[in-house]
Amino acid sequence: MIIPPGPLKVLVAVKPVDFRKGMVGLASLVQSELMRDPFSGIMFVFRCKRADRIKLLLWDGTGLVLVTKRLETGTFRWPRFGDGVMSLTPAQAGALIEGLDWSRVHAPRIARPVMAQ
User: Is the full-model pTM beyond 0.90?
Assistant: First the structure.
């Protein structure tokens, strides 16, 4: 998968989606229900009801990329059901995609420097 340059922003759709949807259906869902731009370079993560499969949707600058992953055993750890989206750091998204407990991954908060030294 080609990742756009710069920091990657990852948004997780908290509510399960119909996994019969392809990239056009998921892009439409991003626009109509999540009120976001699917062509912004943000990676959107979706899950099915059973939580054993995820889909990743990303605009890489030349086209939409759709990746599907199914865990052979277990389920993906997911935030509680609700509407809307949840933001993850790239490290947390990597853990989620690997099937790990992403909630245990914390990015250190570093204060922005006031002046270069």
Answer: no
The Cα–Cα gap between 94 and 64 comes to 20
58 three-class SS: strand
pLDDT above 60: residue 3: no
Q: Which residue has the tokens 């999540």?
A: 34
Backbone phi, then psi, for 96, in 5-degree steps? Answer: -60, -45
- What would the pLDDT profile of 22-58 be if each residue is shown by its tens digit? 999 999 999 998 999 999 989 999 989 888 999 999 9
What is the rounded distance in angstroms from the CA atom of residue 96 to the CA atom of residue 57? 15
DSSP class of residue 107 equals P
Pairing of strands 43-47, 53-59: antiparallel
CA 77 to chain centre: 13
Q: Select from 56, 46, 44, 45 the least CA-distant residue to 18.
A: 46
Residue among 44, 42, 48 nearest 71 (CA) = 48
